[in-house]
Amino acid sequence: MKPRFLLVGLTGGVGTGKSMVSRMLRDLGCLIIDADLLAREVVEPGEPAYDKIVAEFGKQILETDGQIDRKKLGALVFADPAKRKRLEEFTHPEIRQRQAGILAELLTEGFEGLVIFDAALLLETGGAKNMDRVIVVYASEATQLRRLMLRDNLSEAEAREKIRSQMSLSLKVKQAHYVVDNSGTREETDRRVREVHQALLADLAALQATSS
Description:
Layout: E1 6-11, H1 18-27, E2 31-34, H2 35-42, H3 48-57, H4 70-78, H5 81-109, E3 114-118, E4 133-138, H6 141-152, H7 156-164, H8 169-174, E5 178-181, H9 186-211
Parallel strand pairs: 1-3, 1-4, 2-3, 4-5
Helix pairs in contact: 2-5, 3-5, 6-7
């Protein structure tokens, strides 16, 4: 059975406004699979990744109720690529498994529409190869810096370090089918999102024509 839906990866960089674009696409009727939500689910107590993470990083990353303190864990792995890679080895297979389960359900149900997989690390983890299309949300570095400094109360140096820790946006843009530039006003971004949405509907119609 071939899917009657179009699977679209949505990604970007810190401070680009990917979450806002995701909400706009949801409002236009797209079904959103949020990788960050899946990432929260797989580290719940009782999940396989939870035990591995606690064994690897120690009980100091736990809150009093036994939940993993994501901020503490993030601070621990942020500046250490080896630790970050280790964490990803625990979580990414579990996230992929949950994503696969959701897609299998949609296939069984005969869902027809646009499915957006919202994932910050879509390109870094190789997840883009499983997507029918990829959208990259872009913003100028000056815009990213300003947003990060305001949102997270960071110094310019801290915000710049956070941006530098990710794959460069220019590289991400090269791998995109569609780019949403979110450096300007909300109205401009909304207009571009609607353009991309219309293009994706045309892509979906073409896919359905070949699978019918």
